[in-house]
Amino acid sequence: MTKTLHIIGGGMAGSEAAWQAANLGIDVVIHEMRPKVKTFAHRTGDLGEMVCSNSFRSDDDEQNAVGLLHWEMRAADGLIMAMADRHRLPAGGALAVDRDPFAQSVTQNLMDHPKITVQHDEITELPAGGHWIIATGPLTSEGLGQAIAQETGRDALAFFDAIAPIVYYDSIDMSKAWMQSRYDKGETEAERTAYLNCPMDRDQYEAFIDALLAADKTEFHEGETANYFDGCLPIEVMAERGRETLRHGPMKPVGLTNPHQPDIKAHAVVQLRRDNALGTLYNIVGFQTKMKYGAQSSVFKMIPGLENASFARLGGIHRNTFLNSPTLLDDQMRLRSRPHIRFAGQITGVEGYVESAAMGLLAGRLAAAEIMGQPLPPVPQDSAMGALIHHITGGAEAKTFQPMNVNFGLFRPVEGLKGGRRGRVHRYKAYTDRAKAAWTDWLATQNMSCAS
């Protein structure tokens, strides 16, 4: 049997899987259909292209599960984290990146690796043999999607994912907006001023909500339902849940002081985050939307400071496909009916760039170990990686399975620690300390196997 690992898809998961396997000595072929076959969401043929936000979210590895996942990926010499660190932008306590140079660097590193070959071709059938990882993400092509559905004997689940708009900085009225991270969070001045803020008073907020609710929305095709993932809800869907929902979500006014009117507390605040190193583009944080383009332009220009905004990209919505992984995948991420095929990334039912890349990292290492004839022990459940893979491959309830971000709710409790909000600082620190030790030990197991 061939010792080459084939990976379908060159997004976050596929890129990381290839990097990990190749660094363990395995020959890898990445099959990426772009740019020959385009998707509506991608702009380039680069590997690791960021489609939605440019943020990898919190980088706090002691009090945040996402930051812990960053730590574990860095400990495993992950490509995605290395390139994110190289192209980091100020974003308070978050890890945001300059998306185009980031993807270009991911692509160049993979193309330069002597063990990696990139083929721009579309795979439309499940392979009959060999070693494969399918990491096609939420935009799996129709042909391959049908092949997967036929093999699993059931339709893939689906929800709808929405994309936030991006604004040109020079079109923003800075006599109304200002730069500040919430609670001035960050160690440098750039971090403490990483977000651009647009304030609203009560009347402006109420008018904005009215416009959101009345705006023309994207219609769904027959048989489709708006089964959204809660972590990426369109703003108009949030508004439909209650007029105050946005004020307690992406438009919360806390931790901010308007230098133009320091004595007046805003009723709501719209935040924008820098989207490139030049600082010429800003994305509207949490403003994923399914409004039609014409409606978006008029509604978003109601935001103080954005009255004359020019948009580099308006929001959008797309169908997002994923497997019912608890019933279909084993704890090594293999398809139970065809164990020579692994799945990784968003198609497995994780949500977010970081989680997708993390599942790619695991799939690449697990596949490489199997090819070398040195299968690895299960990923430790007490690590962030382990908590996530355990959830998607068996810990979740199959009947209600939905995409999941990493969070401390997936971790096993630490005995003797106080529950509730008051005890969470010590509890989260205990989770992260335990996870780092478990992950380090697991990595050492593979390193010893390779050395022998």
Rg, nearest Å: 22 Å
Order of helices and strands: EHEEHHEEHEEHEEEHEHHEEHEEHEEHHH
- Please report the first level of CATH classification, the CATH class of the largest domain: Alpha Beta
Total beta strands: 17
What is the subunit arrangement here? single chain
| Main sheet properties | 6 strands, mixed
CATH level-3 fold name of the largest domain: FAD/NAD(P)-binding domain
CATH superfamily of the largest domain: FAD/NAD(P)-binding domain
User: What does the overall shape look like?
Assistant: globular
The number of domains is: 2
Helix share, percent:
25-40%
Model regions low in confidence, pLDDT < 50 over at least 5 residues = none
The helix tally amounts to: 13
For the largest sheet, list the strands in their spatial order.
Answer: 6-2-1-7-17-16
Query: How does CATH name the architecture of the largest domain?
Result: 3-Layer(bba) Sandwich
Determine the strand fraction and express it as a percent band: 15-25%
Derived from helix and strand composition plus strand pairing, the structural class reads alpha+beta
Mean pLDDT: 91
